[in-house]
Each structure stands twice: as structure tokens, then as C-alpha cells.
Amino acid sequence: MKFVDEAIIEVHAGKGGDGVASFRREKYVPRGGPDGGDGGRGGSLYANADRNLNTLIDYRYARIHRARDGESGRGADQYGKSASDVELRVPVGTVVTDLETGEVVADLDRDGARALLARGGTGGLGNLHFKSSVNRAPRQFTRGTTGERRRLKLELRLLADVGLFGMPNAGKSTLIRAVSAARPKVADYPFTTLTPSLGVVRADVNRSFVLADIPGLIEGAAEGAGLGHQFLRHLSRTRLLLHLVDIAPPDPDADPARDARAITQELKKYDVALYRKPRWLILNQIDKIPAGERERAVQRFLRNFRWRGKTLIISALTGEGCRELVFAVMKYLEQESGARDGVRRRRR
């Protein structure tokens, strides 16, 4: 199935049914009085998060979604039937935004989460509501109100604990294959990965985290170069970012430190909050450097990159350092979860 992570739709809620002015007409019952019923409620539209879905492709072509109108009231105290609500199933992690106001309508970040997209109109009142001691034969009734209409943007943001980003051919897909059961495509040309992929990384029987791999970034992504920024939204929910760098690129004229700086600048241009997330530097393909020269090559890169944060050295191809990376990430996530739980308890 094609991966689609963005769609624009229109939702039209149903109109409420009209009330009615009616009078009881029955043999041997003179002056029966008003008996006009109310109109039914118009149908509303809801979004439902379903973990069995992983794409918004259903909304790429079905752009307009309507709910039915409520029935009008009738005589003999008969109320109109309310219309059924429409449930739109979306993947877990979908963010719904109003296109006109820019307001976030809903963030469906868990299975079963439900959000109102457009409210149906209320039914009108029949004339039986207007009778009184001074108005025994009312002819007043009200019309049903119109339902809400909105243009909405649906954005899928993958739910992952850790996000992996870097230049094309840095070895991201190879790494996610090495540490999880995910099997993204791997080849020796740039932009092999065209869509994000998720992998469950198990550190132990009951200890695991979800790793997200997004297509590679290049300098100028903010201006649309390469695949642009369109997949960076999938890193917004992560708790830790791993910046993967090929420390031994095949091109002798390539400058890994300059490329790494360009990627971090693209991250900052897209979203400052994402740029400020905890980030580790992962130096990949260390197997291409002779053992005696590795330390010198790493120190030269860190000096040129001007990086003082946490750094891990691995080879995704041979598996060297991957196990240590998995346990380090798992330990960080557990400590971070414990710190957050402690803050919540103190606030209570």
C-alpha cells in the first residue's frame, strides 16, 4: 500500500430537521391543541484513531465527507429521526488542523482516541413547545440549524521513541535492519528510502523502544532540494534524535563535518523545537577505517564539527558498536521516563 502522510479534506455536518406546526385533528376531540413534533439532529463527523491503519491514502482521493440531515418533525407529537454520525478512521498519530484558522483541532496520539470534526445542526422546535395559557393555538415553529463545514488538513506523525536522520546513504536503513526486525530497502545509491519506516528495537525481553527512520536530508532541503522537509514531521514526537554520519564516505572530496553541519541547519530551519531535542551523534562505517587510524579520524571529525555532545561509534554493516548503542538508548529512555514520572508526582 502506498504511504501517504498528508491529506486535505472537507467535512460537512448534517442540517437539523425543521419543527412543524400541526394541530390534533380527531373525531370527538374538539380543539385538540398543538401536536407538532421537533426536527431531528443533523449528523456529526468524528475522527477515530485506529492502530490497524498506517496511511492516509483513503483521504487522498475521497476529499469531501458529508453527514445526513435530520428528519423534520410531524404531527401527532412525532419527532423527526436524528441522522447517524459519520466516523472517519485515521492512523494513530494523526494531527487534524483547521486550514482557515490554523488551529489544531485534534491530536490523535493513541488508539481509540476520538475527536469531533464538525458538529451537526440542532433540530427545530414544533409548535407544541409554544402553547401557553394565553396562546392555546400557536402556529410558531423553528427551523433546524445548519451543520458545521470545515476544510481540514490531516497530517500523520509517526509514534516513535527515537528518530534517525542524516544524509542519504549514511547507513540509516542498514542500521535499522541491524537492530530491529524492520527490513527497509538498502542499496548503494542516494534516496533509497522514500518513505519513513519504523522498527521495534529489543534490548531485553521486556525492554524495547521504537526507532523511526526517515528519508535522507541534503543541504537546501528547506528550499525543496532532494525530498525537502516533508518527512521531518515524523520526528516531532520522538524523545531522542540520532544524527547518523558516514565518517568514511566513498567520495574522496566529501567533507563529513561540513555535511553534518548543513543537516543540523536544515533541522533548525524546519523547527527550532525539533532542533533543541536531545540529540546524539552516531559515527557510522568505522569498519572502513584501519584500526590504528580510527581514533585520529574521530577526533578530527569532532574538532571540525565542533561537537561536544554524546558520540557513539558503530558499523551498521558489521554490527560493531550496535549492541552498545541499543543499550545506551534504552538506558537513556528509562531514565528520562523516570524523571518525567518524578516531576508529575511532585506536581500532584
How would you sum up this structure, described in words?
Helices cover 20% and strands 23% of the residues. By secondary structure, the protein is of the alpha/beta class. The strands form three sheets. The chain has a six-stranded mixed sheet, sandwiched between helices. The protein has a five-stranded mixed sheet with strand order 3-1-8-5-6, with no helix packed on it. The protein has a three-stranded mixed sheet with strand order 4-2-7, with no helix packed on it. Helix 3 packs across helix 5. The protein starts with 5 loop residues before the first strand and ends with a helix. The mean pLDDT is 84.
Helix coverage percent:
10-25%
Overall geometric form: elongated
Which ranges are low-confidence, i.e. pLDDT below 50, for 5 or more consecutive residues? Answer: none
Which sequence of strands runs across the widest sheet? 10-11-9-12-13-14
| Arithmetic mean pLDDT | 84
The description of the largest β-sheet is: 6 strands, mixed
Assess the beta-strand content as a share of residues.
Answer: 15-25%
Task: Report the count of strand segments.
Answer: 14
Tally the helices: 6
- Cα(first) to Cα(last) distance is 46 Å
- Find the structural class using helix and strand composition: alpha/beta
Spell out the helices and strands N to C: EEHEEEEEEEHEEEHHEHEH
Over all CA atoms, what is the radius of gyration? 29 Å
